Amino acid sequence: MGISVTVRKAVYDENDQLAIAINEELAALGLLTVNVLGGAGAGKTSSLIRLIENLADVRTRVIEGDIESDIDTQKLRSLGVEAYQINTGGDCHLNAPMMRAILPKLDLSGGGALFIENIGNLVCPAEFVIGEDIKLLVCSVPEGADKPYKYPTIFARASAVLLNKTDLLPYVPFDLDYFKTGLRALNPDAPLFLVSSLKNEGFAAPAAWMRELLSTRTK
Amino acid sequence: MLPPLEPWMHEASAAEAVVRMACAAAAEHSVAGKIPRVIRIRLVVGESMGYMEESLAFYVRSLGKDSVVEGAVVETRFEKATFRCGSCGTLYERKRFSFACPSCGGEGSLVSTGSKLYIDSIELEE
Questions:
Q1: pLDDT tens digits, A27-39
Q2: Residues B114, B118: Cα–Cα separation, whole Å
Q3: Which chain B residues are Cβ-neighbours of A150 within 8 angstroms?
């Protein structure tokens, strides 16, 4: 029998403290910081592009998180979006130290929004705060309506949910009520926006929601 | 010696933090400059976090090698996500693929997310 020592400390405490400091710095610059989450292939990048198009008068920039490649960053840059790449080299999520390392490379002047597209994954990215004000969760119709039941943490922590690829609703079995019931049980308040990035439909509403949040950030 | 910061998957990230924190907590209880060995680590893990007990223990064993954590037993207590029924008020744990109330079938809402992850205590060698 040894000596028992109480620790009672969150395992990600070090990360969380750094994230709080990063958030305070970004807020002081008048920025709204958005952690964009979602599974691989949900349409995080294409939704971001549509959202940014709908926020044309707002200064925006994107940090792209990927295990490998800069395909999304190149795509965003080709559309004139200011984009920066983090490659995690295997890590399945972004964390606060990665944010701390990349932020000095960004031009953060002029306020507006900083989007961070996290690694495509519904598990680990939910657990790491990286300095964001809000978490925007991108889901898509082909992933299936059971996702809130299978990945409750990310749905419980989302500030808003985009359901993308709604143009596929006539062709793919997707029980929207089942999806909504699961989401509401976990998260009664997060707005749900039905969108199609392919058809460019439904993005005015999430853009208006973001505009309202941005107005609280304007210096 | 603390393990280096390397890219790892899911449980490994948590285990790495657990090893670092347990090493640091043990160091705070050094006796005559000697850091005591950690023989047990008690974790509290929310079931919604998607952590496997054996996987956490495996990575703690692996990452704890050559440190004061080497050989420590990892005990994991899982905390369930709980819901309360909006219709009848029953407090319940979810079933798979449903958040519905087991008593009346009503729609529940989340009371406790079951997404905690912390070291409750450690046990040090005397």
A1: 999 999 999 999 9
A2: 12
A3: 97
Give the closest-approach CA distance of A166 to chain B in angstroms: 22
Q: Identify the H or E element spanning A178.
A: helix A176-186
Task: For B98, name the nearest residue in chain A, comparing CA atoms only.
Answer: A149
pTM: 0.90
DSSP H or E stretch at residue B112: strand B108-112
Put simply, the answer to whether B13 touches A124 (Cβ < 8 Å) is yes
pLDDT band at B1 (very low <50, low <70, confident <90, very high): very low
Residue B35 sits at the chain A interface (C-beta within 8 Å): no
Question: How far does the CA of residue B59 sit from the closest CA of chain A (Å)?
Answer: 14
Which one, of B47, B11, B105, lies nearest residue A151 by Cα? B47
- What is the least distance, in Å, from the CA of B17 to any CA of chain A? 6
Asked if B117 and A10 come within 8 Å (Cβ–Cβ), the reply is yes
For A123, the token pair is 């598990």
How far from chain centre, in Å, is Cα A26? 16
In angstroms, the Cα distances linking A196 to A44, A87, A142 are 11, 28, 12
Rounded to an integer, what distance in angstroms lies between the CA atom of residue B19 and that of residue B26?
10
pLDDT above 70: percentage of residues in chain A: 99
pLDDT in tens, A69-95: 999 999 999 999 999 999 988 888 999
